[in-house]
What we know:
single chain; 215 residues; mainly alpha; 8 helices; 71% helix; 0% strand
Amino acid sequence: MVAVPAVASGLLMLLYLTMRPYGDAGTELTMEAAAAFASPWWLVAHVAGALALATYALLAVRVAAGSTGRAGPLSRATALTGLVLVLPYYGAETFALHVIGRAAVAGEPGALELVEPVRDHPVAMTMFGVGLALLAVSAVLMARTWQRSERRVGWAAWPLAGLVVLFLPQFFLPPAGRVAYGVAFALAALLLAAAGSQNRSTRHTPIGSTRSVAA
Length: 215
């Protein structure tokens, strides 16, 4: 059943990008950025973002279940591997920057100077980039698996797949663009969930069954 992970992924991504404080969106780190890092909403939003990717990976696993071609197993493998590579960077972004922000707000001199080493650590950045690339590959393979499974709405996975592919570029958008991305991701996920529910109900409807109509 794909509806639950699809809905969860969409709503969590929406929460992430609408509730995230954007005080760090400028080119320079100021006390506004420190306040954003220190905000409880920084923690809530980024945990939601990590869970959005985790539930997307679960969605890829669910779509791959029972598939007979190569795309399904490859989608599952790349989704899970990509998730493992992405989560450590999300952990640092979520918790390390929150601690740094709280120290800066409390008046700790030079606290914000630690933000760049945390965000730009070469190993962490490489793992994050490779992980997101694998998630993008998994999304395309997931959509192909969905389309080839003789489903009534075979194209329904492609909007979400396209938005997973665009997850890395959305980091470079202004706050309004990132919020719009979150809304689009949620809508695409809900579309796939609705298509999955429709396919499931069709699969369980006996041939020749009739429905009474109340007058």
